[in-house]
Design a protein that fits this description.
single chain; about 350 residues; alpha+beta; Aminopeptidase; 2 domains; seven-stranded mixed sheet; 9 helices; about 30% strand
Amino acid sequence: MSEVALRDFVPGRDDPAVEALWGRCFGRPKGGQTVAWLFREGPVGPCPRSVAELDGRVVAHAGVAVLRFQIAGGEGLAGYSVGAMTDPAVRGRGLFVRTAEHLYQRLAQSGFALVAGFSNARSARLHTQQLGRTPIRPFPWCVRVLRPVGAGLAIVGVGRSASRTEAPLAEWPSSSASSCVRVEPCSPDDPRIDAVWEQARREIVVGAVRDAAYARWRYASRPDAGYRAGLALREGRPVGWVVARLLPLRGLRAAFLLDLLVDPEDRAAGTALLDAIDVWARAGGAHVVSTLRPGHGAVRALLARRHYLPIPERLHPQTIRFSVKGFGRFASEPRLTSPEAWWLSWGDTDVV
């Protein structure tokens, strides 16, 4: 039996082989969600990746997108695992775990604080039972119902399907929840996002650094997704930021609220942004707004007041699991595995 060789991914040389492996595992990439997009270089450098070779052929791959992370008042590097795959012809030989272990060793040696990521139903057991990642549960999915009757009819298959709904997208409305707060559209890479982050970061215990560099990397690099971003301004000063898009969700037209950051002391800013989301989503024909609720803080309280209701995991339209593993001094950091400490959003995923 041939021996499997584990090694680091070599940019340029290994790209064609990994793209071919992706095709054998998942088929053609959807939209702009290509292998190149998943592993594009971010604001903190290239993406560490590992491959397994059998008879000179790449048969397994694991990699991470690199982010700056805020952890209990400090900062560290985090790897979000994406693109883990094993050739269907050689599955059952433990290559998924072995390739990931090689990658994790490299991350630890390079000083990464953690690896985290989302798992499908097949890989969740491997991530948590064999690779030592701790699940963050319950997964904080919540929704706000905008059109109860329309949503009910769509769920039971009556009326127009989400895929045929072509309502035009409205621009962000000018909102006046406070006479001093208004919402205006902005580009996903607007530098004013930095000012919002400096205010919002006071509440974030564990979560990605969501500054302008993050927004540029996450949202400005994929124009096919149709992301819409808005800034809340108080007398010209940025006090909140939101980004969203429209997608079908099991027969429903859904608005996905991907990121929402506000000044914790400015309740009106959050209200203005969610008002704008409601108007924009309705204009786009959305039945519901879907988001992830942070484990703590002003945004969590704001979403609760606006009747964003948590969905029990047994009712999730698809199985989603999130898990984390710390390295070095963070291996025993209790807040890293606490659901209440995490600030998760749909922007942390690679599929929305």
